[in-house]
Amino acid sequence: xxxxxxxxxxxxxxxxxxxxxxxxxxxxxxxxxxxxxxxxxxxxxxxxxxxxxxxxxxxxxxxxxxxxxxxxxxxxxxxxxxxxxxxxxxxxxxxxxxxxxxxxxxxxxxxxxxxxxxxxxxxxxxxxxxxxxxxxxxxxxxxxxxxxxxxxxxxxxxxxxxxxxxxxxxxxxxxxxxxxxxxxxxxxxxxxxxxxxxxxxxxxxxxxxxxxxxxxxxxxxxxxxxxxxxxxxxxxxxxxxxxxxxxxxxxxxxxxxxxxxxxxxxxxxxxxxxxxxxxxxxxxxxxxxxxxxxxxxxxxxxxxxxxxxxxxxxxxxxxxxxxxxxxxxxxxxxxxxxxxxxxxxxxxxxxxxxxxxxxxxxxx
Length: 364
Hints:
The structure is a single chain. Helices cover 45% and strands 15% of the residues. By secondary structure, the protein is an alpha/beta fold. The protein has three domains: 16-73, 434 Repressor (Amino-terminal Domain), CATH 1.10.260.40; 78-174 and 309-337, 3-Layer(aba) Sandwich (Rossmann fold); 177-307 and 343-363, Response regulator (Rossmann fold). It has a six-stranded parallel sheet with strand order 2-1-3-4-5-11, sandwiched between helices. The longest helix has 17 residues, at 309-325. The protein is elongated, with a radius of gyration of 27 Å. Mean pLDDT is 85; it is low at 1-16 and 358-364. Residues 21-73 form the HTH lacI-type domain. Residues 326-364 are annotated as: Disordered.
């Protein structure tokens, strides 16, 4: 049975159920090659013909086959993004920023979450290779070197946080942990805190080591001796924050302030303190790290060190795009600095004994 087409000047009335570039070429009265070059934005296409093609694409509501385009152009225009765990609110914010800047520049993204599991890491890398991504932003830690070799031997540009191999096509986002943590310690010291604890991330991670080192250095800079019993290893999770705060509450004396290696840990700390009948900041002050969106609405709102997920996303995309679109650059940028800054909210205040002394002096 032959399908009959209605005669009309309106292209939509003539549109068969299946559309491809041949349909567009017939409707625009141009060659298939012209449609292909137009869709792939080849600069040599006649502007008048290109407009005609785009007009028909708009009328027919046609969506180009990106896989077919990749076969023709040799480019997938897909960047991979590997993160640790999607349940941590920091990563959806980073993901949103990465997707926003990618879409603005005509790229797609392929997202994978490792959950710190080696088998999942392997699956993540395999997906990236199968989809022929043009570059991968690795916004996690602890990926096995042999898995990275799978990408490196295919000359896939990579971007890491903090550390990465000294290889061509590799860039690193260098987070200035010291600046923000130093501001946090100085803020607590200015409030007369001297008994300050720190809950780190997993100390096998470079980022956790860097944050812990920044904390101890900043304490010494303020004339405060770090106490080993008040430096607790956490795991960057809410439950880890609860468990770490339980350990700190078991010390004698207890700290008057706690800095945390990320906001999820700090939220766990707030929860544990509330369950223990302690008030923040009246009984103890708390500082987080990351400035995830919900830090603004915790009770009380969380003082934290801001490490912008959007800044990470924008710099990661810029690094990958530079490698892909300007591979012959004589001096490719190896490092991209990421700034950190303290955001003061309501979870920090003077320690109780200092407030009592000030009150006594006022009465005298």
